[in-house]
């Protein structure tokens, strides 16, 4: 039963004591966030992982987040992901081989004194983070993408942003650079306009989040028709038109703060993963929290893979002295990826 499982998780946590910290991303199921020592967005979780001195960091999140935790924690700390199936599809949209090929083409398309700085969204694997560090670039999350762009333009002439084209486009708008973007579609080399790419200040890799891309302007129009006083907050992984039509756009922590700071009785529609919307309604019953897409459920399958039964299993195995589902980045990659993450933490 859920009650029994809850008792087992809490008993295992008590036994592991200070040797353990459980981190939970805002999109995790209720049965996971209820056991997390800290809940947050991907930037906050990477900071928490860096600050943690527990021997074991059990990560309620997806693979790229656990990898980042491993990169940023000390070598004697172990990061555990309760399910190895929790992989973000967007992170898989920029593979190292593809990026290497694109980089060769892109650098050949511009003149010798044009410096391109690659920036990767946190939602990417360690090899891409390492690549960005090697080329003078860095990592960003949705809460600091604009600062990462500023960092890059202080040091170079052009940005290659991977893998989320929507976050890239939304950030270009925020910086007043929307007129100088071009898309790079690695799956359709024929369609590439090399001249446009060479001219643009910001080149956007053609990746996207399949959860956030499904929100449309129609959803916003419909909800505004149905609720006179509704305000709309969305994640910047949503399409440009959706971000434009919303009242606020920001990371999952911005979405949380928006609801925390709302007055009782206010109505907010949320354009992000459904578990966070449900948590916010539970945590703030005085606010009317609605999913932006009505009953159409925007559920992240990768986040959902972290099943509470797996959490119980990895914790009980630790008590028996067995480390299961350890996430470990290869040392050379780790060193470079750490540099890219440190540059982000500094900005
Ligand atoms: P945040 O950095 O806003 O938590 O977002 C992570 C993510 O995966 C959004 O889809
Ligand atoms: Fe990846 Fe989208 Fe899921 Fe975030 S919500 S983990 S970007 S698939």
UniProtKB/TrEMBL annotation:
Catalytic activity reads:
iminosuccinate + dihydroxyacetone phosphate = quinolinate + phosphate + 2 H2O + H(+)
Q: Which InterPro entries match?
A: NadA, NadA_sf, Quinolinate_synth_A_type3
Q: Does the keyword Cell membrane apply?
A: no
Which residues bind [4Fe-4S] cluster per the record?
Answer: 88, 209, 300
The compartments listed are: Cytoplasm
- Annotated pathway: Cofactor biosynthesis; NAD(+) biosynthesis; quinolinate from iminoaspartate: step 1/1
The enzyme class is transferase
Task: Name one matching Pfam family.
Answer: NadA
Q: How is the cofactor bound?
A: Binds 1 [4Fe-4S] cluster per subunit.
Q: What is its main location?
A: cytoplasm
Q: Which residues bind iminosuccinate?
A: 25, 42, 121-123, 142, 235-237, 252
Q: Which GO terms describe its molecular function?
A: 4 iron, 4 sulfur cluster binding; metal ion binding; quinolinate synthetase A activity
* Gene3D superfamilies assigned to the protein according to its UniProt record, in alphabetical order: NadA-like (3.40.50.10800)
Q: Name one GO cellular component term.
A: cytoplasm
- EC number(s) given by UniProt: 2.5.1.72
Q: Which GO terms describe its biological process?
A: 'de novo' NAD+ biosynthetic process from L-aspartate
Name the needed cofactors: [4Fe-4S] cluster
Q: Which UniProt keywords apply?
A: 4Fe-4S, Cytoplasm, Iron, Iron-sulfur, Metal-binding, Pyridine nucleotide biosynthesis, Transferase
Q: What does this protein do?
A: Catalyzes the condensation of iminoaspartate with dihydroxyacetone phosphate to form quinolinate.
Q: Give the HAMAP family listed for this entry.
A: NadA_type3
Similarity comment: Belongs to the quinolinate synthase family. Type 3 subfamily.
Protein name per its UniProtKB record: Quinolinate synthase
| The species this protein was found in | Natronomonas pharaonis (strain ATCC 35678 / DSM 2160 / CIP 103997 / JCM 8858 / NBRC 14720 / NCIMB 2260 / Gabara) (Halobacterium pharaonis)
